[in-house]
């Protein structure tokens, strides 16, 4: 499976290179650099701001939570995103790495695995809502678009999957057990019993209001991603409306979700930006530049988070297997 992931990733990288050179590498590079350091800094700040509701959503999910946990959950989200985008794994690898990172700062293994899976489900549900909103706007603007049928079918399938997960928490329990087993591989003592993991999962899902709150926070973050897309196009000199940015971002996410088997969406993200942007008459080199800026922004944010994760892993190994930070409050009990 890992070898296949490398093959898909390599193919995606080659596709991305072909897209950049196919539409004029010089024009793409000029557009990318035109934002300047100040504009690039604005994109970084915008992404860091979007991560705030994501951390709050994870905090809301935890049965026992304290405010001092929020900065660690914020960091855990950054690690999760960076792991999924820059390491040669499928997206689930980012989930595992993010959950693992939280165990290094005091969150119990079972709770870390269970809360990660529920948070991923809440984010996926919000993404379906976001994609549906984008499709609705596209229906108003271009009711005869060729994208409506395939995107609509994908949204229906995704909505059914989200509904099944919510309605059948027992299936989620088994997924939690598999996730926690991957996180705790080689560390049976830290893993704990499967009953403990199932218990944490049940405790989380017993608080329906918290789950709904997490979904709404994730939906807010998705709206923020649309605003950030608008900012990127604006900085590149291609002003679009917020509604157009929302449709572009929603269709982009729908496209990327269908190509989850390609690590980091290598190449696919560039192709999707180019194709979707063309619907609104945006120059292809501008849309590709937006994709490259997004990757550069994520690298600047994600690399320090991953380095801190590796430092904590090294410290834990040096300490003989402990090495987790204290003061997690009630959640660590």
From TrEMBL:
Signal peptide: none
Keywords: Cell membrane, Membrane, Transmembrane, Transmembrane helix
InterPro entries with a match to the protein in the record: L-PG_synthase/AglD
Origin superkingdom: Bacteria
Main location: membrane
GO cellular component assignments: plasma membrane
Keyword flag Ribonucleoprotein: no
Record field: transmembrane: 6-25, 37-61, 86-108, 120-141, 147-168, 205-224, 230-252, 272-293
Subcellular location: Cell membrane
Membrane topology: Multi-pass membrane protein
NCBIfam families for the chain: HpnL
Protein's name according to its UniProt entry: Flippase-like domain-containing protein
